[in-house]
Design goal:
TIM Barrel; 21% strand; 34% helix; alpha/beta; 273 residues
């Protein structure tokens, strides 16, 4: 069954390449029935010592523009207005929230885990004495709190710390030193009762060959009764629904039978896989 919903995407309101209307038109062309734009909310963005995403003023313009687009394209697509909120960012909510951990704080410094491999290596060496497992532990300690910090409807890219770790070039994702804090965070987040997204964004941008979360963590999530949805984390109109067939197969192989999408009224709808 083809999945025709996508609730994680970005526009030129933050770090995306296209306008909201360009994204909506691309979604319509692809036959997407329910589409959500989930723009970043204002959060630290080192090492450039700046901020990424919308402040309150920009957020008001964003909601107004998307509300107008929702009406303009009514009958062609069901558009939902979301935000992606970091645990260290502002808490601005529209119709739904994706909760994500992009930044950590260590010894009074802020670390961005998905900026670049070089930045992450430098942070690991300087702040964690080169111990990748201590860095991963710090990441998952923050991730474990993301549902409470953001009051989210979706857990975004749960294992984002692995973005630059294709083929295990930085650390071993199969060892206990990595898995134990990851599973501990997962167990804590399960209490929130919200789905974890299978996110294909790092594949479309050339960093990974598989979606987040890893197969090992997805199997763990299934064994503990967790729920999923599938999102592209698109930053351009050309990558909506990117590699959804791969994500769907992965979900089925890990034992999932359906994915969820938020109804933006506090509940979820099932999509059979």
């Amino acid at each position: 069954m083809k999945i025709l919903s996508d609730f994680h995407s970005h526009t030129d309101y933050a770090d995306g390449k296209n306008t909201p209307e360009e994204m909506v038109l691309s979604a319509i062309e692809l036959g997407i029935s329910e589409y959500g734009i989930s723009e970043h909310v204002y959060m630290p963005n080192p090492p450039a010592e700046e901020y990424l995403g919308m402040d309150e003023s920009k957020f008001e313009k964003y909601v107004l523009e998307l509300t107008e687009l929702k009406e303009k394209y009514r009958g062609k697509i069901e558009l939902h207005i979301g935000t992606e909120v970091d645990g260290m960012g502002k808490k601005l909510r529209a119709e739904y929230v994706i909760g994500s951990t992009h930044v950590l704080e260590k010894d009074g410094e802020t670390i961005t885990v998905d900026d670049s491999e070089e930045t992450l290596k430098y942070a690991c060496e300087r702040l964690f004495s080169g111990d990748w497992y201590k860095l991963c532990e710090a990441y998952y300690e923050q991730e474990a709190k993301i549902a409470k910090l953001t009051d989210c409807d979706i857990i975004g890219h749960f294992d984002l710390i692995t973005k630059f770790n294709q083929d295990g070039r930085l650390f071993d994702e199969s060892c206990d030193a990595y898995l134990e804090p990851a599973i501990s965070a997962m167990k804590e987040l399960l209490y929130a009762g919200v789905p974890f997204e299978i996110n294909t964004g790092a594949i479309s941008r050339g960093y990974r060959k598989e979606p987040y979360p890893s197969r090992r963590l997805l199997k763990e999530l299934k064994s503990r009764g967790g729920m999923i949805m599938i999102n592209s984390d698109s930053h351009s109109k050309d990558t909506l629904l990117y590699k959804f067939d791969m994500a769907r197969r992965l979900a089925l192989e890990c034992g999932f039978e359906y994915a969820l999408i938020p109804d933006c009224k506090g509940g979820y709808k099932r999509t059979e896989l």
